[in-house]
Design brief:
Elements (H helix, E strand, L loop, with lengths): L10 H25 L1 H10 L4 H13 L4 H11 L2 H25 L6 H29 L5 H33 L4 H24 L13 H10 L1 H18 L5 H9 L3 H28 L2 H22 L5 H33 L5 H30 L3 E8 L2 E9 L1 H19 L10 H34 L6 H26 L1
Antiparallel strand pairs: 1-2
């Protein structure tokens, strides 16, 4: 296969490439779903991992981003991002097969040390490939369609992840209940299948065309310092570093908190993740459209505060009087969390790509990833250590009213950690307003436009269709009505529909 970049791509080549990138996204999402996230945490807990090891496991994909310097050097030397991406991605998928095979080769399975080593190898080469991919996509995807396209791609990935997560959770719970001795073996099979999905993604990328680019053959450290000398980009680095540190200190432990403190099974946790993903699926298209229309900064100023409220919401989950009440609160948090995180993730990714100059995009994007990685990798490890220290600590927040001390919140262990993460996230938002972005709009204007658009859509769909459907569709259900009565009601509903449609047509005329 010829990996040589093209001096200029036709519109047909670009459209074909965008389809291949979506195929890669779906394959990669299946790989991540099978080998990461909640399932990886569940596997780590099965292997008796400590809180520090869980924090280290979470920080690995972030910490290995510092090796993206190698990606800059490779692009500078060979000027072929597609070849670098395909080769490094192929190497990165091999450890997944090794992890999956180990439980079949050794009766004792594998240890956390071996798991951490293999995943380090996986994330390292994945990070090198990731920098080339980001620079490649910046040149391939038209700038005016970036938010819409990546929003659509992310939406399709989330739909796949949602369906796959539910199936895996049900399967794992069934194995745990009836064949507990094969639970670790099931995770091994998941890693093998995840490796296969990853290789399918590599094949899709190998068929994606690459527009030719040129990276100056300057000293690597000199190139690396260019983004740091760019005042506006440096402000973006400071904000993203602070934001990632604040969120990464607490969010990786939400699943552990729900398992250990609330006492939820894996099915419940995956069900909550499903709710969050469904919320993201329905909102990410909207975020992508408004990011193109207003700006990434505006989207962050709207979505980030809502996500912080979700982090702080876990404080009240810990105070719930019963598990049922905790589940209700978690459902609300996951709905709002999925909605807000869709906007935050999309805007953060596109923000750095938009501010990076075309000729040096890989340098700017890699610099951002490396600087953010240093903060994001340290935060989960610190969070894990703090979780162990705070496990036996408690803080009572009270308010003096009319000479009496009224208790408000009783914080213990995880709650203290979540409070700290939420307060740091609030502080990091102040750094966002120092970053300038072309085409940015005041948050109040964007919120007003979104509110008007939502009301208009609600009125159009609800007043004309939904009200009729509330009357019509129950007739179609197998209720205790005779067939004659059913047919008569259906005919009347049809007359009402025709009259409503005619009225609307006369109004438009």
């Amino acid at each position: 296969m010829n990996f040589k970049p093209s001096p200029q791509l036709t519109e047909q080549q670009v459209n074909m490439g965008l389809k291949q990138v979506i195929k890669d996204g779906l394959s990669s999402e299946a790989m991540v779903c099978l080998t990461g996230g909640t399932f990886l945490m569940s596997m780590a807990l099965l292997m008796k991992a400590s809180n520090f090891q869980i924090g280290l496991l979470t920080s690995l994909p972030i910490f290995t981003n510092i090796f993206q310097l190698l990606s800059i050097w490779l692009v500078q030397r060979y000027n072929n991002r597609r070849a670098i991406m395909v080769i490094c991605s192929f190497i990165a998928r091999i450890p997944l097969f090794a992890i999956g095979v180990l439980p079949f080769l050794f009766s004792g399975g594998t240890s956390m040390t071996v798991l951490l080593f293999m995943l380090s190898f996986h994330y390292l080469f994945g990070s090198i490939a990731g920098a080339s991919w980001s620079s490649w996509m910046k040149d391939l995807v038209p700038a005016e369609r970036m938010g819409t396209y990546f929003g659509h791609r992310r939406r399709m990935m989330l739909i796949l992840s949602t369906v796959l997560s539910v199936a895996l959770a049900l399967g794992l719970d069934y194995i745990k209940l009836h064949y507990q001795q094969y639970e670790l073996t099931a995770y091994g099979v998941m890693f093998v299948v995840g490796g296969i999905c990853g290789m399918l993604g590599v094949w899709a990328l190998a068929r994606t065309p690459e527009p030719q680019s040129y990276l100056p053959k300057e000293n690597l450290l000199k190139l690396f310092s260019k983004p740091l000398r760019n005042t506006n980009f440096r402000k973006l680095l400071v904000f993203q570093s602070a934001w990632v540190f604040a969120c990464s200190m607490s969010t990786p432990f939400f699943s552990v908190f729900m398992m250990k403190t609330v006492g939820l099974s894996l099915s419940y946790i995956i069900g909550l993740s499903l709710i969050s993903q469904v919320s993201t699926i329905f909102s990410i298209k909207m975020w992508g459209k408004y990011a193109d229309r207003f700006s990434n900064k505006t989207i962050l100023s709207i979505a980030a505060p809502l996500f912080i409220c979700c982090i702080l919401g876990y404080l009240f989950v810990a105070q719930a009087s019963s598990q049922s009440m905790a589940i209700v609160m978690l459902v609300v948090i996951h709905v709002l969390g999925g909605f807000s995180l869709a906007g935050v993730t999309l805007a953060l990714d596109n923000f750095g790509m938009k501010l990076a100059p075309n000729d040096e995009a890989i340098v700017y994007i890699s610099t951002r990833n490396i600087v953010v990685a240093l903060m994001g990798a340290f935060a989960p490890m610190l969070g894990g250590l703090l979780a162990d220290v705070l496990a036996t600590q408690s803080v009572l927040l009270s308010l003096p009213i009319a000479g009496k001390v009224i208790p408000i919140l009783h914080l213990q262990g995880w709650s203290i950690l979540f409070l700290g993460g939420g307060l740091l996230a609030i502080a990091s938002l102040r750094l966002l307003y120092r970053v300038a972005e072309e085409g940015e709009t005041e948050r109040s204007i964007a919120v007003g436009h979104m509110r008007v658009a939502f009301k208009s859509s609600l009125q159009d769909k609800w007043n004309r269709e939904a009200l009729l459907n509330l009357i019509y569709y129950p007739v179609a259900l197998p209720v205790m009505l005779g067939k004659k009565v059913q047919r008569r009601l259906v005919r009347r509903m049809a007359i009402i529909r025709r009259y409503s449609t005619g009225t609307e047509l006369r109004r438009s005329a």
